[in-house]
Specification:
By secondary structure, this protein is an alpha/beta fold. It is built from 16 helices and ten strands. Bound molecules: 6-O-phosphono-beta-D-fructofuranose.
């Protein structure tokens, strides 16, 4: 994996940063690295996530899922970091096992999925670090009833990944379900390289050891200089550009297999860095598709965006047949991969031509090792950015207000937030 910062330099883009700026910032990166390493050494909450390449036990994960022999499908019931990491992995990699995610409480979507599956051949993976998340528990109860209605013994087809205590752990212990622990000091958005992200990948037959090896490779690159660590290079440049007004970051992979990765990145970046009025808003984009959509805004809208372009340098390809169609002959004899690469490079150059800074991240190919590299590097980049921005990276207090309001509306307790909902201002136009 490599990170190319060329297009964020002021020699490329008038709104970029100078090498001198990066060299000055490198001193702060060294201090941040020392803080991060101390946090890792002391297994401090959050920093512990950066130890997962060595603390995650792939054998324990395989053991926990070993009873589920050759399922047709696996449904992960979880939300946020309890689903997005696993989804990033299983959506990026081919498998004979279909992986589905119930990470929302849209009744039509839940009903449609459950109706479509043979639940006797489906494994259910219920994931919640807290064990109290309403959406996850509600969906689990619905799935459990659907299995009962289908004559399936749900306890035979279900395993649980959860924290040290809570409703889910109680349920698993009551019904003697396979139980995987969520590592205590790892927030959900940083948990992909733990039981939370890897169990579904293991059920789908993916090489979870290779994922951890790739992550370990990026762990080994963490250093006291952004010029020696792809992860820190990305985190430092994202921070430096945000300080200069680039308060949005469009994550734009040129691979359909990485579309869910952008969603995972959005939670990691937003929930970690959106604190004290600060942060950099992650935008989900996809190349080449969004060249015919959001690129107009990225090139000609407000000068408030960093664009992050990600591609694999190796991929399976598809030839474009020769054609005598007027104006299209130039495509014939080429390939879709060559077209995708040309569009990737053209988009980079078009952004620079409009003085819009952009970073290139290149993986060798979209496989387990490279995914491990990318995921670990983005986590480390996020932790570094949080140190430089001096925010509390590993908490998310702002999400709690809405949870209390929703719970109050459903009669789950007496919460003043629910009263505020009743007092909504109205100006209805029909
Ligand atoms: O794993 P849990 O505890 O169900 O939490 C799910 C998600 O909800 C959040 O806690 C936010 O509400 C995320 O940080 C987390 O990934």
């Amino acid at each position: 994996m490599q990170v190319d910062l060329g297009n964020v330099l002021d020699t490329a883009s008038a709104h970029g940063v100078s090498r001198e700026t990066l060299e000055r910032l490198d001193g702060r990166v060294a201090d941040a690295h020392d803080r991060i390493e101390q946090g890792r050494e002391d297994n401090e909450h959050g920093y512990e996530a950066l130890n997962l390449p060595s603390t995650t036990d792939p054998d324990a994960i395989r053991e926990a899922v070993s009873r589920f022999d050759d399922p047709d499908a696996v449904i992960t019931v979880g939300i946020g970091g309890s689903a997005l990491g696993a989804a990033t992995l299983t959506d990026a990699l081919d498998s004979d096992v279909d992986a589905y995610y119930l990470d929302n409480v849209d009744p039509e979507a839940v009903d449609s999925l459950l109706d479509s599956l043979d639940l006797s051949q489906t494994v259910v993976n219920v994931v919640s670090r807290s064990g109290t998340t309403a959406e996850t528990l509600a969906n689990f109860l619905v799935v459990r009833e659907a299995m009962a209605d289908a004559g399936v013994d749900w306890a035979d087809r279900t395993f649980v990944t959860t924290g040290e205590e809570g409703n889910l752990r109680d349920l698993a212990e009551k019904h003697d379900l396979p139980l995987l622990p969520v590592p205590d000091g790892v927030p959900g958005r940083f948990s992909v390289l733990s039981t939370v992200g890897l169990a579904a990948a293991a059920i789908c037959g993916h090489d979870i050891e290779a994922i951890l090896d790739g992550a370990a490779a990026q762990e080994a690159r963490l250093s006291d200089s952004l010029f020696d660590s792809p992860a820190y290079a990305y985190g430092a440049v994202s921070f430096a550009l945000a300080e200069r007004g680039m308060l949005q970051n469009a994550m734009m992979p040129y691979a359909e297999s990485l579309e869910t990765f952008s969603e995972w990145f959005a939670q990691l970046w937003a929930e970690s860095l959106g604190k004290d009025g600060l942060g950099q808003t992650p935008l989900r984009a996809l190349g080449a598709t969004d060249q015919h959509s959001q690129l107009q805004l990225y090139r000609a809208g407000p000068r408030d965006k960093l664009v992050t372009l990600v591609r694999a340098t190796e991929r399976d390809d598809v030839d474009i047949p020769e054609t005598d169609l007027d104006g299209l002959a130039y495509l014939g004899g080429s390939s879709l991969g060559e077209l995708l690469d040309a569009e990737f490079e053209a988009t980079e150059a078009s952004l620079v031509a409009a003085d819009r800074p952009n970073v290139r991240i290149e993986l060798e190919r979209v496989d387990e090792y490279s995914l491990g590299e990318l995921l670990y590097a983005m986590e480390a980049a996020c932790v570094l950015y949080g140190e430089l921005a001096n925010v509390d990276t590993f908490v998310q207090p702002a999400v709690e207000w809405g949870k209390r309001a929703a719970r109050g509306l459903l009669g789950g307790g007496d919460f003043e937030e629910a009263d505020a909902v009743a007092d909504k201002e109205r100006l209805v136009v029909e």
